[in-house]
What we know:
12 helices, alpha/beta, 2 domains, Quinate 5-dehydrogenase, 15 strands
Amino acid sequence: xxxxxxxxxxxxxxxxxxxxxxxxxxVIIERIGTDGxxxxxxxxIKELDGKVDAFGMGGIDLYLRWADKVYTIKDAVPxxxxxxxxxxxxxxxxxxxxxxxxxxxxxxxIMPLKDKKVLMTSATDRCGMAEAFYRVGADVTYGDVIFAxxxxxxxxxYRVFSMLAEIILPxxxxxxFEKLYPTGKEQDTVTTKYEKYYNDAEIIAGDYLFIKKxxxxxxxxxxxxxxxxxxxxxxxxRKRGVKMLITTTPEFNGRSFGTNVMEALIISLLDKxxxxxxxxxxEKMLDKLNFVPRIEYLNKDIELHKKAEGYK
Length: 312
């Protein structure tokens, strides 16, 4: 039996435990939130180190990747160093493969994405998804400066955003992480301050907590492409009128876990040191696991009209 545990800086309200059978072996997958308490994250990892097959680092990234460069987030280093026996991953390696595949899958099997208006709430933590949207010809607004730095400055050009990323990322990774991303109780705070950017988009994509942070009450006919959602998140999206929810990670017992959890699962199955795992290893394992995006139509009338709108 394998045990995968994501220890998160996020809210404990989002805790979950699921069991699955993968390749004939029972796997327990858990998410433990610490409500923004760094010391508790480190304490929990030290307590479980060697007792679990792999850790996921939740609520914080260790690495941000853009183009061929990797940037290490300063505040995440002590969390990584708390695990001396069990491997620990933040999901960034898997995002680069799984989320590229997810966008290609959507474009081929769900809807053509060319010229679709996409708001990416944060592209720098999802370089694979951002590049994939660009490659299929989507009309993307990159919202990193808005959602992470709280500056209303949307970027429409992938090339311009790439240049900005190379300037901003070396600075951002040295900032206190809570200045960049909602942790603890901040994850439950929602304001409609940037509503106009949602209204202008057909598809809202990226980390769910960034999407939720400024989400308007009225999200009628919007499509959400994200990863970690709980059953209550899904119900909230339904009430707001969201047309379709697409999660890049699969569902376990009514919940889609984050990429850090899925990467930890893959690491445990590969039985290799994290630093030795290649992109090809991730690709082969994703093929074996047959991970495809979870697609859910959230309003009944949508199912009736999806053919008329060109969905397969």
